[in-house]
C-alpha cells in the first residue's frame, strides 16, 4: 500500500483522485459478496487524495484548483451514473461519505454538498438515490447541513433556479422525501432565521399537494426489522411538517413584534404564506388518513406509532414557550389558530392510529397550553387505559349518520312481548278531519345525508 501512496504522490491532484476512486471500486466490488468493508490503508488513501487531509504534517499536498475540483465532481458523477450495480454504487458512496468522526469529515461534507447539488442540476438519479440512503442513515445534525447547502444553492443564491430543485420529486421521490424531512428538521421556527423561506415553502407544499404519498415513501420502504442509528432523521416528515403548521402563526406574529420600525414584513407575502400553511395543514391530515390504510393492511394498527409521543411533547413545549413570549392580547387570533391546528392534528393522528396516546396522557401533555375550545373537545374524549390496545371504536365520527326512524336499529336487543291491553270502552265516533295536503317523500332533505366537506382552519 505504501508503494501505491508514493506513486500517487507523484501525480497531479486530479489524476491521483481518479486513481483512488478506481482502486476503491476494485477493492469494494470484489469483496461485496463476502461483506463490504475497507481496510485502514484504503481509508487513508481516500482521505488524503480525495478529501485532501494530509497523512503527515510535513507532507505538502497539492491543492486542487476550482477547475480541477469541478472536474473531479464530473468524474464522480460519471462514475455513479455508469455503474450498473446499485449495490456497488451504494457501497462506494458510503465508503466515500460515511462520517468517521475525524478531521476529514468537514472535507467530506463540503464535497458531498457540491456533488449532490451538481446531481440536482444535471439530474443524476443514481447519486440522488445514494444521497437518499445517506440521509436516512446519518445523524440529523449532518443531514440538515446538506439540506442547508441545497437551500442556499437553489433558493437563496440564485432564486430563479428553484425550478431545477423542484424537478427532484419526479426524478427521485426517495430523495425528495428525505429532503423534506431534513428541511423540516432544519427550519424549526426557533428564530426568525430558522423560518423556511417562502420559495422553499411553496415548493414543499407543491410537492405534497401533487402527491401526498411522497411523505410515506421512506416509512413504507423501510423494513421494520432494520434499526437506524440514534439521532437520525425520523421515518416520515410528518412531525416536522406538523411543527410548521402549528408554529407558523405564532412565528409570524413574533416577526411582526420584533420588526424594526419602518421595516415591516410584506403583507402580501404574509397572506401567501398563510394560504400555503393552510394547504399544508390539510395535506398533513390527509396523509394521516392514508397512513391508517397502510397500517391496517400491514396489521400494524395500534402496534406501531408513526408520530412519536416525544415529538408531540416537544412541540407542545415549543408552542407553550412561544405563547409566553408573545402578548396574548395582541396575538389572541394567532394563538387560537395554532391551537386549533394542533387539536385537529392530534385528533386525526389518534383516530388513525398514527399516534398511540391515551386521552389522559394527552391532558397531561397539553395542561400548560392556553384554553382552546377544540383542544378541550379532543382532550375530553373517551379515556383509554395506558398501554391498552388501539381500539378504533373509541374514536366515533363527529357527524354519525342518523338511522331512519322507520328502519329497525340493528344494535337493539330483541324485546320481550308486551302483555295484552285490557279491552277498552267504545268511544264516540269522531268527525273526520279534512284531507291533508300530500307530504314530501321521506328524507327529502336531511343534514346527515349531505356530504360534509372538510375545510382547513385558516
Automatic annotation (TrEMBL):
Q: Which Pfam family, giving just one, matches this sequence?
A: INTS15
Q: Which InterPro entries match?
A: INTS15
Cite the record's Pro residues compositional bias ranges. Answer: 435-444
Q: Which intervals of the chain are annotated as region Disordered? A: 405-445
Give residue spans, biased composition: Low complexity.
412-424
Q: Which domain of life is it from?
A: Eukaryota
The name on file for this protein is Integrator complex subunit 15
Encoding gene, per UniProt annotation = ints15
Amino acid at each position: 500500500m505504501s508503494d501505491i501512496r508514493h506513486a500517487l504522490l507523484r501525480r497531479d491532484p486530479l489524476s491521483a483522485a481518479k486513481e483512488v476512486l478506481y482502486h476503491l471500486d476494485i477493492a469494494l466490488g470484489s469483496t461485496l459478496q463476502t461483506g463490504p468493508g475497507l481496510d485502514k490503508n484504503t481509508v487513508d488513501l481516500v482521505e488524503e487524495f480525495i478529501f485532501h487531509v494530509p497523512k503527515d504534517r510535513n507532507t505538502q499536498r497539492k491543492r486542487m484548483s476550482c477547475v480541477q475540483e469541478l472536474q473531479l465532481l464530473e468524474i464522480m458523477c460519471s462514475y455513479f451514473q455508469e455503474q450498473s450495480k446499485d449495490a456497488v454504487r451504494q457501497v462506494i458512496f458510503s465508503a466515500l461519505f460515511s462520517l468517521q468522526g475525524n478531521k476529514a469529515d468537514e472535507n467530506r461534507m463540503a464535497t458531498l454538498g457540491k456533488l449532490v447539488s451538481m446531481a440536482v442540476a444535471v439530474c443524476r438519479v443514481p447519486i440522488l438515490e445514494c444521497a437518499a440512503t445517506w440521509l436516512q442513515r446519518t445523524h440529523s445534525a449532518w443531514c440538515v447541513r446538506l439540506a442547508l447547502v441545497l437551500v442556499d444553492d437553489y433558493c437563496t443564491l440564485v432564486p430563479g433556479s428553484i425550478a431545477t430543485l423542484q424537478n427532484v420529486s419526479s426524478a427521485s421521490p426517495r430523495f425528495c422525501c428525505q429532503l423534506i424531512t431534513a428541511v423540516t428538521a432544519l427550519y424549526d421556527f426557533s428564530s426568525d432565521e430558522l423560518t423556511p423561506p417562502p420559495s422553499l415553502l411553496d415548493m414543499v407544499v407543491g410537492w405534497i399537494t401533487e402527491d401526498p404519498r411522497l411523505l410515506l415513501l421512506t416509512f413504507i420502504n423501510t423494513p421494520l426489522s432494520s434499526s437506524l442509528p440514534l439521532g437520525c432523521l425520523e421515518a416520515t416528515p410528518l412531525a416536522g411538517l406538523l411543527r410548521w403548521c402549528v408554529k407558523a402563526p405564532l412565528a409570524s406574529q413574533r416577526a411582526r413584534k420584533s420588526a424594526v420600525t419602518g421595516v415591516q414584513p410584506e403583507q402580501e407575502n404574509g397572506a401567501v404564506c398563510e394560504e400555503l400553511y393552510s394547504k399544508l395543514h390539510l395535506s398533513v391530515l390527509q396523509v394521516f388518513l392514508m397512513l391508517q390504510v397502510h397500517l391496517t393492511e400491514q396489521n400494524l394498527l395500534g402496534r406501531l406509532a408513526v408520530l412519536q409521543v416525544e415529538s408531540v411533547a416537544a412541540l407542545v413545549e415549543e408552542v407553550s414557550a412561544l405563547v409566553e413570549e408573545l402578548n396574548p392580547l395582541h396575538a389572541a387570533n394567532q394563538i387560537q389558530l395554532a391551537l386549533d391546528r394542533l387539536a385537529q392534528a392530534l385528533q386525526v393522528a389518534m383516530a388513525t392510529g398514527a399516534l398511540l396516546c391515551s386521552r389522559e396522557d394527552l391532558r397531561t401533555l397539553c395542561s400548560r397550553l392556553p384554553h382552546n375550545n377544540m383542544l378541550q373537545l379532543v382532550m375530553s374524549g373517551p379515556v383509554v387505559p395506558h398501554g391498552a390496545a388501539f381500539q378504533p371504536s373509541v374514536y366515533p365520527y363527529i357527524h354519525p349518520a342518523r338511522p331512519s326512524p322507520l328502519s329497525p336499529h340493528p344494535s337493539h336487543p330483541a324485546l320481550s312481548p308486551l302483555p295484552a291491553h285490557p279491552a277498552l270502552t267504545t268511544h264516540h265516533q269522531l268527525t273526520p278531519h279534512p284531507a291533508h295536503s300530500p307530504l314530501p317523500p321521506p328524507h327529502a332533505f336531511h343534514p346527515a345525508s349531505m356530504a360534509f366537506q372538510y375545510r382547513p382552519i385558516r
